[in-house]
Amino acid sequence: MTRVALVTGGMGGLGEAICIKLSALGYRVVTTYSPSNTKAEEWLQSMQNMGYGFKGFQCDVSDFDSCGACIDEVTKAVGPVDVLVNNAGITRDMTFRKMGKADWDAVLRTNLDSVFNMTKHVIEGMIERRWGRVINVSSVNGQKGAFGQTNYSAAKAGVHGFTKALALETARASVTVNTISPGYIGTKMVTSIPQEILDSKILPQIPLGRLGKPEEIAGLVAYLASEEAAFVTGANISINGGQHMY
Ligand code: CAA
User: Fold this and answer.
1) 181 occurs within a structural domain
2) By 3-state DSSP, what share of the chain in percent is helix, strand and coil, each rounded to 5?
3) Model pLDDT for residues 119-161, shown as the tens digit of each residue
4) Which ligand 1 atom lies nearest to the CA of residue 189?
5) Quick check: 104 pLDDT over 90?
6) Is 223 a catalytic residue?
7) pLDDT tier for residue 1 given thresholds of 50, 70 and 90
8) Which of the four, 155, 203, 228, 238, has the lowest number of CB atoms within 10 Å?
9) Cα-to-centroid distance, 142 and ligand 1 (Å)
10) Which atom belonging to ligand 1 lies closest to the Cα atom of 95?
11) Which residues have C-beta atoms less than 6 Å from ligand 1?
12) Which three-class secondary structure string do you get for 101-154?
């Protein structure tokens, strides 16, 4: 049976690597892109040229109704979602004293409300079919906090609270819900941090002495989506080069 995997925010950064990995493993892969993404068709075409037949659907993950409409479209066009990877996220880094309400709201809506908004529309189907995987992408900074990220750290910590509670509720239907907490990975989100902050404050905190690779995160997602991971639920798996251990 070919399972359907939906990756939010799959057209860049971690999401793209996750789409590629799941596709290579035989999943039918669907990704969402935000209404502000003007390069979606271009991305889909470039992936097509590389041999990946991804389907893309526009979706504002911060909006409940947009997520509902997106899942309806995906279900009709591709089939019911078996694996949901809640990956879409943004940063609006600044010290708390500079942070406005709009900066708080944007990050909480996109990074935390989105997890509710997407999961709500797929979970009943997973429970009925008695198989499902919800994989929530959190962050090392949700575990330990980060200078300049009160909004992001709060949202990402909230994601794992959601994971633990939902994992309890869906376990009997063999639907697993897990969090992964990547550290600093070599994507635009990280490489756009000012170089002097990266060099002086961040890299020295990573015992492995380098940024992670998107493919390393994708490998972990693939494991959690697999049959072998059926006994893993409610977990928060760190993948951060040793930056934070607990
Ligand atoms: N730890 C301790 N002190 C820090 C610091 C840090 N990580 N970062 C900045 N500071 C210090 C600065 O050295 C400066 O000190 P002085 O006044 O003594 O010189 C002071 O804080 C204020 O710094 P700035 O003037 O740079 O303040 P700013 O408001 O202009 O910028 C900032 C603050 C935007 C948060 C900037 O420091 C920054 O971009 N930091 C990186 C934040 C970060 O790690 N984001 C993660 C993005 S990647 C991601 O989120 C993915 C993931 O999941 C891991």
Assistant:
1) yes
2) 50, 15, 35
3) 999 999 999 999 999 999 999 999 999 999 999 999 999 999 9
4) 48
5) yes
6) no
7) confident
8) 228
9) 16
10) 29
11) 91, 93-95, 98, 139-141, 146-149, 152, 183-184, 189-190, 193-194, 197, 201-202
12) HHHHHHHHHHHHHHHHHHHHHHHHHHHHHCCEEEEEECCHHHHHCCCCCHHHHH
CATH number at residue 136: 3.40.50.720
Residue 246 pLDDT exceeds 90: no
Q: How close is the Cα of 95 to the center of ligand 1, in Å?
A: 7
Residue of 14, 143, 147 to mutate, ligand 1, most atoms within 8 A of C-beta: 147
Q: Give the count of domains, the chain.
A: 1
Pair 16, 38: CB distance under 8 Å? no
What is the β-pairing status of strands 236-239 and 28-33? unpaired
242 assigned to some structural domain: no
In a domain, 196, yes or no: yes
For residue 31, list its beta bridge partners.
7, 56
| Active-site pick, 33, 152, 184, 223 | 152
pLDDT band at 73 (very low <50, low <70, confident <90, very high): very high
Range of the domain at 124: 4-236
Residue 46 to residue 42: CA distance in whole angstroms: 6
pTM above 0.90, yes or no: yes
User: Hey, whose CA ends up nearest to atom 30 of ligand 1?
Assistant: 94
DSSP 53: -
- The type of residue at 154 is A
Residue 79, helix vs strand vs coil: coil
